[in-house]
Amino acid sequence: MSHVFPRHSTSDLPTAVAGEGCYLIDANGKRYFDGSGGAAVSCLGHSDAAVIEAVKAQVETLAFAHTGFMTSQPAEALADLLISNAPGTLDRVYFVSGGSEATEAAIKLARQYHLERGEPQRRHLIARRQSYHGNTLGALAAGGNAWRRQQFDPLLIGVSHIAPCYEYVDRTEGESRFDYGQRVANELEAEILRLGPETVMAFMAEPVVGATLGAVPAVDGYFKRIREICDQYGVLLILDEVMCGMGRTGHLFACEADGVAPDILCIAKGLGAGYQPIGAMLCSAEIYDAIASGSGFFQHGHTYIGHPVATAAGLAVVTQMQERDLVARCARMGEVLQAALVDRFGQHPHVGDIRGRGLFRGLELVADRDDKTPFDPARGLAARVKNAALEAGLICYPMAGTRDGRNGDHILLAPPFILSEAQVGELTDKLSDALGRALSAG
Predict the structure, then answer these.
(1) Where in the chain is the domain with CATH 3.40.640.10?
(2) Pfam families in the record, alphabetically (predicted)?
């Protein structure tokens, strides 16, 4: 009997014993193509020799040094590398151990920034419905997924939520894509005015919404209008690239595709590629200087921030991406994957939308393509697809609640950047088999 506390108490999961390229191997020797990179984590696959060697070398040299007493060479080098490639005026990196910690730190930094500048009345955070920003209480409060929030709602801080940029469902007939984007972006201005412009500290959003919407990018012009509104009212723009960043969408930083730069940016998942748990919050020089010239102390921290082994892994991962031109490869293979998905599922009676950027793709499942009606949640379609895919030897990321936290289902795909064209065919073959079996089962 296991003493591990699992995510689901009724689950009977295979035991992973090895990883090889794009595959995970269980204790029975069965191979699974990792079509979602776990949760968009394993961007380099599961056996990258350079990253493994970097981790080994760092453990042998220095395993841990608390950042309250010392910095470390890999942390300094990784911060330099990230900032040298970062958009806008991002200038400082605060390392953490994962995505939830990164968004939690971002919320706290936004609040302290305004305090340091003599604006203590700025306390409101605005985010979007059907977003996901993590599972710590602050990050969960920022997230707009009703199902994830429900049982913890009494513990959460108040956060305003406006509409996501979800073109497939929300753009009206006859409305241009640009006009739609401007309309939903302007909800931010309306909410700032409702709350009182002098009371709003930040707006948080995912450039490409991952887990809860299934790889939904904004339409052209949306984030440029968001940036204008934030600048007009002195509101910080926090972009959560925990899932969609670090090359996943074909850009090292996902916001590059939208032509904007944030004041605070959060990354994780692909930063460590699964070789070590690591995330980071990047902030502008202006925000850092407000702290440095004020109290001089960011009132936040965790034991393992800036961990030498984790930052050594992150440094090796980003170095591999650059030296092997893997971000450009991700963009190129993303087009190959999109074409294969459209070819296989574009006319499928229960696939309503195929979307995304780079190797970050989503398929929205519908009961009726014409009116975009979702399946009855009681059917448990997402769970059925996940189980059928595992049987077929495929790991993918199906989720329920796409529309409102309860209704709707989608499948998220985020394979390693190293996948081949032949493996694109393997992925679509196994996904087709899994979807067929899930749909035929009641």
Answers:
(1) 51-324
(2) Aminotran_3 (PF00202)
User: pLDDT digits over 240-297, tens only?
Assistant: 999 999 999 999 999 999 999 999 999 999 999 999 999 999 999 999 999 999 999 9
Q: Which CATH number fits domain 51-324: 3.40.50.450, 1.10.10.10, 3.40.640.10, 1.10.15.40?
A: 3.40.640.10
- Which tokens belong to 92? 């400082």
The residues of the chain that CATH labels 3.90.1150.10 are 16-47+325-440
Burial of 346 from C-beta contacts in 10 A (0-12 / 13-18 / 19+): exposed
Output the six-digit token pair for 312: 């050594």
214 touches 363 (CB < 8 A)? yes
Q: Distance between CA atoms of 386 and 215, rounded to whole angstroms?
A: 17
Residue 343 to residue 105: CA distance in whole angstroms: 42
CB burial string 76-90: b at 16+ within 10 A, e below: ebbbebbeeebbbeb
**Assign residue 18 a region: left if phi > 0, alpha if psi is -120 to 50, beta otherwise?**
beta
The pTM (predicted TM-score) of the whole model is 0.97
**Topology of the domain comprising 16-47+325-440:** Aspartate Aminotransferase, domain 1 (3.90.1150)
CA–CA distance, 420 with 280 (Å, rounded to integer)? 30
Distances in whole angstroms, Cα of residue 121 to Cα of each of 34, 111, 115, 142 = 47, 10, 8, 19
Within 13 Å, how many C-alpha atoms sit on residue 1's CB side?
3
CB atoms within 10 A of CB 178: 13
> pLDDT band at 82, cuts 50/70/90?
very high
Token pair listed for 215: 């790889």
Q: Which amino acid is at 428?
A: T
Average pLDDT, the chain: 97
> Cβ distance 388 to 442 under 8 Å?
no
